[in-house]
């Protein structure tokens, strides 16, 4: 169901934050990690998405980060110069580490965690624009939730990310947000939606009705606040260096966290969201042209200008891939995740994805803009992904899975 601006208006009241002054003063320090790859293509730093992301955080209200870490995953653009420009113009300290070779986003997050000064750590995409109350709202959510649930080990607070939007466009039942159906080898994120139940009966963490109550979920995505110690106890992010993109990193870490008995929450409050530019990708996500001339505090360019630059298709930035490589990696990396749990789940995922991708020609996300119309091409991509998934799983586990690959080929190749 579509949500209207009138319905959202009641949830976006920034004046109430000033009633939480005492709470805000007691908030602990937090670190921020950006993993980046070729997100600074211009010598003019103010035209680079990594700089835009920093500027929105620097201009946040009521709470600021005192420890920034940038892990540069072997960029060959103006990233280092842009970091220098930021530190010089805003008088902030940024720890900059450049990987000597590409090691993937997931492995780079683990590198960043080693350098953080604080136990509470934000992970954020380097092509997002963060709302002015993103930081304070996230921190208050964590602190209030911890106070309400003192015996619970809260590992992650997931934050809302809106694709080329400043607020949610649709509602969804809360039970569908961050839902993992492991035995069906399927999961939902839906973190860009607003919980339908909150339209009728909003639940708040505080008596001033400032901050929405987060929802306990089974998985999370790339913009979040995490407890570094709990992530470490769960084994940290998986090593996905064998893949061109770390698509399965969050479902894999979620699984490890839950096996340890740690909790994951999603904060759906639109005041604490961010706009995802999806830099380098002309996606199917629609931008509201009424926002073209809107300017965010501290940024030189309008929202519309930044979106236009972002949607120029590039394969040398972030985790951007060709459509074929995207599908192969999606099939293979998620197949590997389920196979590491059990042969049964690996086989089940392969059968399900063959039906969905090869036979029904369904898309996994809004990222690929093209449908692969030829069934033979889809079959080739599918089996290439499964084969790569077998190889990756063997590397990670030391086990031999060739019999599984043979079974999948025999069962599905003649369909």
Per DSSP E runs of 2 or more residues, the count of β-strands stands at: 15
Please tally the helical runs, counting DSSP H or I stretches of 4 or more residues: 14
The CATH topology of the largest domain comes to: Spore Coat Polysaccharide Biosynthesis Protein SpsA, Chain A
CA radius of gyration is: 21 Å
Write the layout of secondary structure elements.
Blueprint: H1 5-9, H2 21-25, E1 31-36, H3 49-58, E2 67-72, H4 79-90, E3 94-98, H5 105-115, E4 120-124, E5 128-130, H6 134-148, E6 154-158, E7 161-163, E8 171-172, E9 180-181, E10 186-187, E11 194-195, H7 196-200, E12 215-217, E13 224-227, H8 228-233, H9 249-259, E14 263-266, E15 274-276, H10 303-310, H11 323-341, H12 343-359, H13 375-397, H14 402-412
Parallel strand pairs: 1-2, 1-4, 2-3, 6-14, 7-15, 8-11
Antiparallel strand pairs: 4-13, 5-15, 6-13, 9-10, 12-14
Helix pairs in contact: 3-4, 11-12, 11-13, 12-13, 13-14
């Amino acid at each position: 169901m579509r949500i209207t601006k009138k319905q959202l208006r009641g949830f976006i009241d920034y004046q109430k934050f000033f009633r939480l002054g005492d709470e805000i003063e007691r908030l602990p320090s937090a670190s921020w990690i950006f993993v980046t790859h070729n997100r600074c293509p211009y010598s003019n730093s103010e035209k680079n998405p990594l700089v835009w992301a920093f500027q929105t955080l620097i201009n946040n209200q009521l709470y600021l980060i005192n420890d920034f870490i940038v892990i540069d995953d072997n960029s060959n653009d103006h990233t280092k110069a842009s970091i220098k420009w930021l530190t010089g113009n805003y008088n902030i300290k940024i720890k900059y580490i450049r990987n000597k070779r590409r090691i993937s986003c997931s492995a780079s997050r683990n590198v960043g965690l080693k350098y953080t000064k604080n136990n509470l750590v934000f992970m954020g995409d380097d092509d997002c624009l963060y709302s002015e109350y993103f930081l304070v709202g996230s921190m208050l959510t964590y602190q209030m939730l911890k106070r309400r649930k003192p015996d619970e080990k809260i590992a992650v607070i997931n934050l809302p990310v809106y694709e080329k939007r400043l607020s949610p466009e649709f509602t969804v039942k809360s039970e569908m947000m961050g839902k993992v159906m492991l035995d069906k080898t399927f999961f939902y994120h839906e973190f860009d939606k607003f919980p339908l139940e909150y339209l009728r009966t909003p639940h708040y963490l505080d008596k001033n009705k400032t901050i929405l109550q987060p929802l306990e979920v089974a998985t999370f995505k790339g913009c979040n606040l995490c407890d570094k110690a709990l992530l470490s106890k769960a084994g940290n992010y998986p090593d996905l260096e064998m893949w061109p993109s770390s698509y399965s990193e969050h479902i894999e870490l979620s699984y490890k966290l839950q096996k340890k008995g740690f909790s994951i929450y999603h904060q759906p409050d639109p005041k604490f969201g961010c706009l995802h530019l999806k830099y380098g990708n002309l996606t199917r996500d629609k931008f509201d042209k009424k926002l073209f001339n809107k300017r965010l505090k501290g940024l030189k360019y309008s929202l519309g200008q930044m979106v236009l630059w972002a949607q120029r298709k590039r394969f040398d930035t972030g985790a951007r891939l060709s459509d074929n490589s995207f599908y192969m990696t999606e099939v293979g990396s998620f197949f590997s995740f389920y196979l590491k749990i059990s042969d049964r789940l690996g086989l089940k995922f392969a059968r399900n994805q063959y039906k969905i991708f090869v036979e029904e020609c369904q898309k996994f996300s809004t990222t690929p803009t093209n449908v692969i119309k030829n069934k033979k091409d889809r079959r080739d991509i599918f089996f290439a992904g499964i084969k790569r998934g077998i190889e990756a799983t063997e590397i990670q586990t030391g086990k031999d899975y060739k019999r599984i690959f043979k079974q999948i080929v025999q069962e599905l190749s003649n369909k």
